[in-house]
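Researcher: Go.
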Amino acid sequence: MANVFTLILAIATFITGIFWLVECFKLVLLRYCLRQKRCQQQHADAITVRTRVNYIAIDVSSHMPTFIKSIASFFPILLLVFVVRSFIFEPFQIPSGSMIPTLLVGDFILVKKFSYGIKDPITQTTLIEIGHPKRGDIVVFKYPLDPSLYYIKRVVGLPGDRVSYDLVNKCVMVQPSCAKGQEYCTMALPITYSNFGPSDFVQIFNSTSTADASSVFLQLPPNTHVDNGVRLMQRKESLDGVVHHVLTLPGQKDQFSIYYQQLSSSLAEWVVPQEAYFMMGDNRDNSADSRYWGFVSERNLVGKATAIWMSVDKQEKRWFPNVRFSRIGGIH
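Model: Structure:
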């Protein structure tokens, strides 16, 4: 389960919290005894009570195992980690190239957990609604077919949108308010594209077939030739006012035969259900996204990716990874 670590962290926080309360009780008891001692001269008739309380405090202190104090000391740290990770920010590492050029393999990102509501960290039930994803947001979510996996993609379609993908020109078209039928659709959003140009990224295939999913991405200067490598093409996409770059593989045709298909929609066309979203990767020909497995439920949303706090480039024949300081900053 995706929440196993959160559950373990919650249990550890609860247990250390109990030990911390025991320590607090001991301190309160000792302070009470000291207060009784200071009142000794004014309340001579309370000697018996004071002696009994002092005896209890000394007995508790002498029989309190030292490991209790050690365990209790972890509680503030675990509580802070639990609160921050569950409700504020959670770190993730980018493992694949589906969001190139926006996010690279080896980027460490911060995800704002409260962007789309405050959720119960165990059950993922929304406790307080704050907002909803917008087109162009980069979102971390649980993979619908296996919630133990986390995916990161860009929001393309909102609830009720009709999303179409041009298989030839590799363009997206979005018509809002189509949930009730084509006659209710509003005008398509003005999604614009720049001309194609060579990118800084080369896809290296481990076989002679470009259809082979086993490949890596290298960032290389223009005019650099690599065996079994194809330079990806890049252009700007303006999606509902959010401008970003997308990559495509020259000559590569989508495997539309394995596209996710709705019964009431044509091929490469989808109507987003209520409380769901249509996601796509910026590396369009190298992204397993909503085109292939469908929609992301609002319940599966984890948060909005907001910043890169560290980026490392692991290269072969090098003991230490190269830190890409230039990538540290906000995500767009």
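Model: The longest strand covers residues 301-313.
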